[in-house]
Amino acid sequence: MKKKLLAIGLASAMSVAAVGAMAGCSGADITVSGSSSVAPLMEVLAAAYMEKLAADDDKSNDVEIEVITSDSGTGVSDAQNGRNDFGMASRDLKDNEKGSVTPKQIATDGVALIVNKSVTDVTDVTGAQVYGLYANGTAIGGLSAAISREDGSGTRDAFDGLIKSAEGAELADLEKFADCVSEETGTGAVKTQVSGNAAVLGYISLGSVDDTIKTLKFEGVEATADNVKSGDYKLSRPFNIVYTAEDDLSDKAKAFINFIMSAEGQAIVVKEGYVSVI
Amino acid sequence: MLLRKREKGQDKAAGAGAPVCREETGARRAALDGEKSARAVFFIAAAFSVVAVFAIVIYLLVASIPALSEVGFFSFLFKSKWLPKFYEDGSRPASETFGILPMILSSVVVTLGAVVVGGLLGVCTAVFLVYYCPKKCKGAYTQVINLLAGIPSVVYGFFGLVVIVPMLEGIFGVTVGKGVLAAVLVLSLMIMPTIASLTKNSLEAVPNEYYEGALALGNTKAQAIFKVCLPAAKRGILSALILGVGRAVGETMAVAMVVGNTTNNFPTGLFMPVATMTTQIVKEMGYATGLRKDALIAIGFILLLFVLVINLVLTLVKREKMGGNALRGRKLKAQQEEGAQKSKAQYAFRRGGIVQEILKYICMALAAVVIVALAAMVAFIIVKGVPNLTADFLFTAGSSTDVTMPQLLVTTLLIIFMTLIIALPLGIAAAIYLNEYAKKGSKLVKAIRLFIDTLAGIPSIVFGLFGNIFFVAICGGRYSILAGSLTMVLIVLPTIVRSTEESLREVADSMREGSLALGASKVRTIFKIVLPSALSGIVTSVILSIGRIVGESAALIYTAGAVIGMPDGYGSSGMTFAVAMYKLTQTGRAGDMEKAYAIAVVLLVIVVALNLLVAFLERRIKRKARGGTGGEKRRAAAADKAHEEAPLASPAAAQTSQREITV
Questions:
Q1: pLDDT, tens digit, for every residue of B125-180?
Q2: What CATH number has the domain spanning B60-387+628-663?
Q3: B389-604 adopts what CATH topology?
Q4: Could you tell me how many CB contacts below 8 A there are between chain A and chain B?
Q5: What is the ipTM of this complex?
Q6: Are residues A148 and B85, on separate chains, in Cβ contact within 8 Å?
Q7: Cβ atoms within 10 A of the Cβ of B52, count?
Q8: Burial, B2: exposed, middle or buried (Cβ in 10 Å; 0-12, 13-18, 19+)?
Q9: Can you tell me whether residue B261 is helix, strand or coil?
Q10: Homologous superfamily of A110-236
Q11: Considering A137, A250, B79, B90, which has the largest number of Cβ atoms within 10 A of its Cβ?
Q12: How many Å from the N-terminal Cα to the C-terminal Cα in chain B?
């Protein structure tokens, strides 16, 4: 009786495990890992590339790309240790990382400050003003409340690192926002809030700006792709991929990078709301 | 063991008495073996719920140990700063950066607020429904309440986002209406139908004599209701409120849409944006790795402990109700009589009961508010959503960047199919064991039932976490529809067990006895006689499960994932209707909000359709029970039971309505 019970238990456990294992755990041809800010873009690029290669009848050149989300530091160290084909970092390399890996910029991420279309008294803000609103609740004209993204979001990561007080303190160093700051977990939610409320300041990725809201100038510079590219608009950061050396890349990985840098790949970058590098 | 000995003895006797029949004896032994293994299989299925509860508790505990030991249990619970980024860049120790006190307090405040407001609305609605509602509208009103209990929580959240928040901004003149109050209101609306429906059951279970007696003693109707009937149903109402607490504390998506979500804020004001335990999990889980992920799981574990305690309290309240109510009722009546006599003597010339009269009008007003608010919600969604049900959205296949209906439908159907394929046999087998094999009222059965109820009470975000660290991990760390389905199995299992068990109980014993007397084995009797008679109950459980799966979001977002596009199969990730609705309100590309409205309409239509189906089936079951063989006996038994249970605020009734809520 006991044996039978055990056997049945085992069998059911095994069938559950087998069903689980069926869920497809195949190895990929190209593994990319790193920054959670770059990963969403990389996933779209990878999907487009795989689709492109799978579209022809030739099955031999099809690839499987796996994008693993972690953070920039992990992306770089994975690349150093050969745990991926290349890593992703949403920042410039740090000094201690520079020797061992090579960065290649694939896109630029610009952050736009957005307000309701009816706002006319504020058109241009400084970093210190924005810092004051988020950190202390100091209103900028009629803007008395603000929206942040959730901790972990790439846009927030960029924003918090780029907004500094007059004394040079970053938003990123803050323990707690002012009470007037609420958090939203998506670009859309931020836009909805701003488009329905004339007293709220928010920020979104530059590429997601549309006519439901309007952008503010930052330190006198208009938020446009050209100004981001030229470096005049300061609320921006690079999206890099990193690898030890170009020669160490596999042919498949090289071909994928070429695709990213091609006009076709950069068109996707723009479509996803980032600024292209060509 | 005893059983087996007796069987052996019988065999021996048979063998000695009639050696000719040896072959037959062998066959019988084989049949007996079959019986035994069947029994074992049913038992394992029944024990599965126990295993599942333990697995969830132990897995979450083990997964949270790294965080709890690194941070320190008390630092984790009582420090007020959640700043993982400072831990991750190495500038501060874990004990300074993983405090969840603000989230715990926010959860408590929002939950209590919701139970006070939602409880008031629910109880008043129930009083109105039972005592004041004209007979003609009573059925319709009850149906509406049941229907509202079935609306997925994302729809409530969405309504909060697009209506309640702007309304609060308008009324109170605040800049941003999100925060504690908005969350309380959304949760109140959400748990109100559950509380109303359970309160209604326990009010209806109060013996009529109480009411009549009170009237005969010269009380007004309002006095009879508020001073006699309502106190008599106190326990039932209390368990309804506790159930409401359980639901409110575990709700995730609806709260996340309206609560403001700012980490580290204490709930010090009505419009303070705060993050509750559940919303913190859903907010950061997508990004978290390492210790931060462990810490989020630890939040889930703390939440689970909360809910287990709430469940325990609920069980205790219910048990006490069983024991003491008859006596309490009598005592109450005596007290009431005494009081009435006194008041009669004292206020011989006053009609009295002014307070109760006021209460009566408050009840009517609140019942009206409820129905108006909820009708407004449904109407609003339909008016805003129907124009967005474009052919393009409904019928084009969409792509990896474009959400359309077919991909959501396919994902939802895939999950429904896989979940039911696994959960249905498991649930039915468990119900068979509990009803056909186990000794009625034995400790084992009670224990298993307790675990099934516990499983039913676990919030879906906790299932989501468990699915994430168990099923997703098995599948190589990728979100997949399969992992989502396996998680859903755990969620719908209690519904299936309970619903099937109930319909098995309805099958008359004479049918079983007849079958056995004709020489059929027990297994054969179960499969050929009992199950077919209980079919409509099983079908009901399937419908209820489908409803649950369609409306689920928190358990699926980190198991099946939220990838846009047509899924390839069970290995790929995909979005169901409810998950897509939540995601669309967050991503906000052009047209996303419109799509969310459209999906809300689709969800409402599905809920209405499923509810009507259940109502139809239940009516059919009733009719069959009245007409079919053995109906007489069953009716008599039912009457007996009703009589027996009447003073106990009918646990059977409570069970039915619990089923309704889980839709």
A1: 999 999 988 888 888 888 888 888 889 999 999 999 889 998 999 999 888 889 99
A2: 1.10.3720.10
A3: MetI-like fold (1.10.3720)
A4: 146
A5: 0.73
A6: no
A7: 22
A8: exposed
A9: coil
A10: Periplasmic binding protein-like II (3.40.190.10)
A11: B79
A12: 42
